Amino acid sequence: MASKIPQLQSKVNQASAVVSNRGASFYKLLLEQNKHYIQEPPTVEKCQTLAKQLFYTRLASIPLRYNSLRKELEYAKNIIKNRRDLNMENVGMAALFGLECFAWFCGGEIVGRGFTFTGYCV
């Protein structure tokens, strides 16, 4: 472990050099492209007001999202009730969706382990 510290320090120094060379221009470009989102004046009070607006807007959207969830569940219940009417295309799409969810889960597990390929997802 101690032998990896100098290697890690050199990588950190390289990354720091790249950020210091390109970081300021990227920051300026990012602000210029998104200046229509910037609130003037940039004060603490304005930030607190925006945070409260975001919180209460999301709080107000809960009933709409709940209704959407209820509609989706009703749709799923109807599909299960009428499963004899399903064709191969619908079953194939459902299987592909399940496979995609499993693949994203495995990818997340691999990324979470630091890109090591061990365990049950391989």
TrEMBL record:
| InterPro entries named among the record's database cross-references | ATP_synth_F0_gsu_mt (IPR006808)
**Compartments where located:** Mitochondrion membrane
Key words of the record? ATP synthesis, CF(0), Hydrogen ion transport, Ion transport, Membrane, Mitochondrion, Transport
A GO CC term?
Answer: proton-transporting ATP synthase complex
Tell me, what is one Gene Ontology molecular-function annotation carried by this entry? proton transmembrane transporter activity
- GO aspect biological process, one term: proton motive force-driven ATP synthesis
UniProt-listed PANTHER family: ATP SYNTHASE SUBUNIT
- Entry's family note: Belongs to the ATPase g subunit family.
Q: What is this protein called?
A: Uncharacterized protein LOC101504098
- Native source species: Cicer arietinum (Chickpea)
- The gene for this chain is LOC101504098
